[in-house]
Design brief:
Elements: H1 15-24, E1 26-29, E2 33-39, E3 47-52, H2 59-77, E4 84-90, H3 93-101, H4 103-116, H5 127-134
Parallel strand pairs: 3-4
Antiparallel strand pairs: 1-2, 2-4
Helix pairs in contact: 2-4, 3-4
């Protein structure tokens, strides 16, 4: 089992932190997830908070969805712009997606929201591409 890059220090844990992101952040949604994002200049890495209600399922199903969402976030974290607090709310169809497609499904759903929100860091332009465009 490989260790995740995201540790406890990169998570939202206090109720007040969640409230600030909900109230002052902006939201983007798809069928499975809702993403709330709020800029936080004091953190050098994006921080994640998860909200998975009982509507998603029992404790076993909710914990599975949370584990998969944490792993999907850890995969995407390297390409995200720093200094944001994010809260991901799982909708009931997220459980079916997790059962049907597993990590790949939730990874794609989260990646879609991160791209829509403009939170993906732009890759640095390579010198080959830059010179080819000038010609």
């Amino acid at each position: 089992m490989r260790p995740r890059t995201s540790g406890r220090g990169s998570r939202l844990s206090r109720s007040a932190e969640f409230e600030r992101v909900y109230r002052q952040g902006r939201s983007i949604a798809n069928r499975n997830l809702v993403l709330y994002a709020f800029p936080n200049a004091s953190s050098e890495r994006p921080r994640l908070g998860l909200s998975v209600s009982r509507k998603v399922g029992g404790a076993v199903e909710r914990n599975k969805v949370k584990r998969l969402l944490r792993e999907a976030f850890a995969r995407a974290e390297g390409g995200l712009t720093p200094g944001h607090d994010l809260v991901v709310v799982a909708r009931p169809p997220a459980r079916e997606l997790a059962e049907r497609e597993g990590l790949a499904g939730l990874d794609a759903s989260l990646a879609e929201l991160l791209t829509k929100a403009g939170l993906r860091a732009q890759p640095a332009e390579s010198s080959e591409t830059a010179s080819a465009e000038r010609i």
